[in-house]
Write a structure and sequence with these properties.
Elements: H1 4-7, E1 11-16, H2 23-32, E2 36-40, H3 46-63, E3 68-72, E4 87-90, E5 95-99, E6 109-111, H4 115-119, E7 126-129, E8 134-142, E9 145-152, E10 154-157, E11 162-163, H5 176-188, E12 192-195, H6 201-211, E13 216-221, H7 230-236, E14 239-243, H8 244-250, H9 256-270, E15 274-277, H10 292-304, E16 308-311, H11 313-316, H12 321-336, H13 339-347, H14 356-370, E17 375-379, H15 384-391, E18 398-402, H16 405-410, E19 417-421, H17 430-443, E20 452-458, E21 467-474
Parallel strand pairs: 1-2, 1-16, 2-3, 3-12, 5-6, 12-13, 13-14, 14-15, 15-16, 17-18, 17-20, 18-19
Antiparallel strand pairs: 4-10, 5-9, 7-8, 7-11, 8-9, 20-21
Helix pairs in contact: 2-3, 2-12, 6-7, 7-9, 10-12
């Protein structure tokens, strides 16, 4: 009998925050089904995040199951300065100036400490403040100011965010704060780094020069400027997050659903994990059940074949963090048990590339279906063999066997993959491969003696990215010993 974690293919990412800092709550979140825990560098101190990280590693040892940790960097968030009274009321049609002056703002002006932003402006460029609640249009600008007219007014308070739809900003994706947070995250040993406000593949390459292979890079798509170069960004990244919050501020709401589907499809085709994020079960911050629309939103991501769905404030600051994770798991399992889910997975099946590794992986899925195998077992060092299997979205679970604990943790994000850290040295021959795969499948509740496994690996063993062999094995009763 499969556990609830093995019974679903789509993964759950959950953010840890004030509502979920207690180690008992973090354990409850894990037991409820969280696969990847997100630490948000925009909030909390390094000491807070270090304590949460150690709690997660203690949990990993206690339950003998890989747990991935994602450090989500804040990125170059643009914000206005402060006001003498803490807030002002901007009236439609009024003039409003943005400049570099450090004095406190008024109803006529406020500081915007980003000279590079002024250089990117054009006449009639729209500037959004406070998540788009207030809209300004540029009437004149120079190297240190922008004169604007208020299109949509409202109350503007200290340090509210600034967005420029359709403008590619000459900013690095890594601010000074991000550099400090990234160094700290890598010293902890996090498995994934979330790169915010990615606009171009060069942003990912810049981060890669610092990170190397110490962590996977998740590029967050939240700027319209990223859309025309999506393929380049996906190719440069290890995974993608569809960050619908900021993306929804800079684009019309009706554009987001189609873009979400497009990004999921592109990531599946290119074999990169994709996370759908923001406001998935937003009402569960305050109440113990989601709206029907929220349930449908999660279900849509699952039907589309996203690798993971994410909780933000629901698990970080809400009143019902564990209930939100449990609800998300229930929705996922319900959708994945629907016959239409398999129809949709097969309909969007990526075409295998003309490589030996892809041919073996495609054959493994077909053979596993024909013989009703309990699982597809993959041996992997870097994770590439297992991710290749995940790309095909097979109907049976994927057992990702690896002697690299860091690889096992990263694979917790991938659709349908249940990573298993085997420990010990790499395998050296086929009998050992069969024995270890059979034992692991039984040990984690994925299969029983007498059932069949389809096993893929690379020969010679221990050489990353060399998937070239396929075996069908029947689990021996002695596999339990």
């Amino acid at each position: 009998m499969l556990t609830n974690r093995h019974a679903r293919r789509t993964k759950i990412v959950a953010t840890i925050g004030p509502a979920s800092t207690d180690p008992a709550v973090i354990e409850a979140l894990f037991l409820a089904g969280v696969d990847v825990f997100r630490l948000n560098a925009s909030h909390g101190t390094h000491e807070d995040h270090a304590a949460r990280y150690m709690t997660l590693r203690d949990l990993e040892r206690k339950h003998a199951h890989p747990i991935a940790v994602l450090m989500d960097l804040q990125g170059p968030k643009l914000r206005v300065g402060t006001f003498s009274g803490g807030r002002v009321n901007l009236v439609k049609g009024a003039s409003f100036r943005l400049d570099l002056a450090t004095t406190q703002g008024s109803q006529q002006r406020v500081m915007l400490a980003h000279p590079e932003l002024f250089m990117a402006l054009q006449p009639d460029t729209e500037i959004l403040l406070d998540d788009g609640k207030i809209r300004l249009a540029v009437r004149a600008h120079g190297p240190d100011f922008a004169e604007t007219v208020v299109l949509n007014g409202g109350i503007l308070s200290d340090r509210k965010g600034v967005n420029l739809p359709g403008v590619e900003l000459p900013l690095s994706a890594l601010s000074e704060k991000d550099h400090r947070d990234l160094a700290f995250a890598l010293s902890l040993g996090v498995d994934w780094v979330g790169l915010s406000f990615v606009q171009r593949a060069a942003d990912v390459h810049e981060a890669r020069e610092i990170i190397g292979d110490r962590a996977g890079i998740i590029s967050k798509i939240e700027k319209p400027a990223a859309i025309p170069v999506l393929a380049d960004i996906i190719e440069a990244s290890d995974a993608i997050m569809v960050a619908r919050g900021d993306l929804g501020v800079e684009l019309p709401p009706e554009d987001i659903p189609g873009l979400q589907k497009r990004m999921v499809r592109m990531c599946r085709k290119m074999g990169k994990p994709v996370i759908i994020a923001t406001q998935m079960l937003e009402s569960m911050i305050h109440v113990p059940v989601p709206t029907r629309a929220e349930s449908s939103d999660v279900a849509t991501a699952v039907f589309d074949g996203a690798d993971a769905v994410m909780l933000s404030a629901e698990s970080a600051a809400g009143n019902y963090p564990v209930e939100a994770v449990s609800m998300m798991g229930r929705i996922i399992r319900k959708v994945e048990s629907d016959p239409m889910h398999r129809v949709m997975m097969d309909a969007e099946h990526p075409v295998a590339e003309a490589t030996q590794a892809d041919a073996i992986t495609a054959a493994a899925q077909e053979v596993a279906h024909t013989i009703s195998a309990a699982a597809i077992a993959t041996y992997t060092s870097s994770g590439s063999t297992t991710l290749r299997a995940s790309r095909g979205r097979p109907e049976m679970p994927i057992l990702g066997l690896t002697t690299n604990n860091h690889t096992a943790r990263r694979l917790t994000l991938a659709w349908g993959v249940h990573p298993f850290f085997t420990g010990g040295p790499d395998i050296t021959d086929f009998p050992e491969m069969v024995a270890r795969a059979s034992w692991a499948a039984v040990a984690c509740g994925m299969a029983r003696p007498g059932q069949k496994l389809v096993v893929t690996a690379g020969v010679p063993f221990g050489h990353p990215g060399n998937t070239n062999s396929l075996r069908v094995v029947t689990i021996d009763p002695d596999a339990t010993t």
